Amino acid sequence: MKLSTNDKIASLRNLMKKNNVTAYLVTSSDFHQSEYIGDFFKTREYISNFSGSSGTILITKNKSFLWTDGRYFLQAERELAGSEIFLFKSGLKDTPTVQEFIKHTLNKNDTLAFDGRTISYKLMLDFKNAAKIKSFKLNIVLDLVGNIWENRPELSKEKAFILEDKYSGEKAKNKIKKIRILMKEKKINCHILSSLDDICWLFNLRGKDIKYNPVVLSYAIIFKDKSVLFIDKSKLSENIKIYFKDNNIEIKDYHDFYSYLNTIDKSSTILLDYKKINSYIYKNLPKEVEIINEPNPEIHMKSIKNITEIKNNYNAHIKDGIAMTKFIYWLKTNILKIKISELDVVNKIEKLRSEQPNFIELSFETIAAYGKNAAMMHYLPNYETYSFLKPENLILIDSGGQYLEGTTDITRTISLGEVEPHIKKHYTYVLKSLIALSKVKFPHRTFGGNLDSIARNVIWEIGLDYRCATGHGVGHLLNVHEEPNILRPSASCIIHPDMVTTIEPGIYIDNSHGIRIENETLTTKSFVNEYGLFLEFETLTFVPIDTDAIDLIFLNEDEKNWLNNYHKMVFEKISPFLNKDEKNWLKEQTKNI
Question: Which of 308, 344, 503, 546 is most buried (CB neighbours < 10 A)?
Fold first, then answer.
């Protein structure tokens, strides 16, 4: 018998009572502070039924609360319906943060508990400060959801693989050498890593431990003379073991990591990132060590793509462009002929991508949202909830692929027939926003927040906005969302040459429609003058933008020229790989407007 959300919460409260817990916190994280997580770690989803990638739940003796961001407001309302959980909409004016709420709610001698392996040490410091001020206690060793979760999935046992030099562009030993040079400059003895994409990038290691994210569950410590990788050894082939030996990487079991921390020399100076390590890692370090809390240097290093990665990424986008162009042709030519559901769309896109050489998996779960479903930014159709398409209105499709050559992320909003004038206007303004940022030239060392406003300003002109970033960094056969580059109002990250960043403005009207158009871009050098180096965005995505939904009255000549030039490039890159009918269709779709 399937338990309801309220039944699960009641079971959790019984354990809270036995352990003298006043409030229990469950996050969306795994032991590595990953954005997307394996099934074993989906404790928040299990206890709340909310399946979005971002959210935190707090359960007290008689109430429950869930925080999530603007991408998931509508989805959370739907998935929490019928439960006792109150939804806090993060980022809105009167919404307290989780930390603020806990500080206000808990009192002297109360106990806040959580599984410290799933809480970053940075967040832990907030709770420590609040506990000190309000005199409540912390218990960081309780995995209460794990105690009530029957038939919990096991940790992944998927095999790992090494990304060859022809794809990575740099040997692992060279990357490690760069880290050691930095360590020497800062007089650091060891560097602790628990973030999976940083570890996998550093060692040229890839796997399938998290769906859509080709990473391997692991921890790593870099010393002056060796590296130690903590991983399930059953995932490693003999060739990988030889590879690690050749690179002076010592292998230890994944579960031995915390006990190993206790053995680190007490006189060590350790480089780690409070945002990236969990609270248990800090707890298990010798108290005498000196800690340097700085962002992992791998974050910046991997965001700057090398020449080989850039060339491979270009090829990945050609493949992705072929698959997506074939898909749009199929959809447009069949909408009046056969019955098509959102699930059919999801399956068709995956099939077409899988036909491309070196395709590994999708880079995230495909968003296929027809009509008003698209108002939910991250709506995901499933076998319980999905819609059938009609030869009218729009469908928003956000999808991507993982190829040996790189990671793709693209959104197209497609007209299926008659579109109402006000929706066409919104579509055109989203396109204008994309074009505005795509064609801008900007000084090097410009912040992501400055660039965000260029795209967002176009949407502001008609009195609208969107509750998400304008763009994000993309990994190289790694996470589809990659730090540090992000385009959002508060972003203080600097956009550097050779970063890969999406541009994806949108408009979302509750219970009506949602529109997003997204391309991946490469930051390239534009020119140098007396003001220094200027940069621009080179578009990497090669998929037609649907002109059927455009109201041309709102496009100026410069914008029309940009779109015509983009479509000329799409036709040149993609048409050689299409059959005759597809090619004729693409020629019509990419003709000058």
Answer: 503
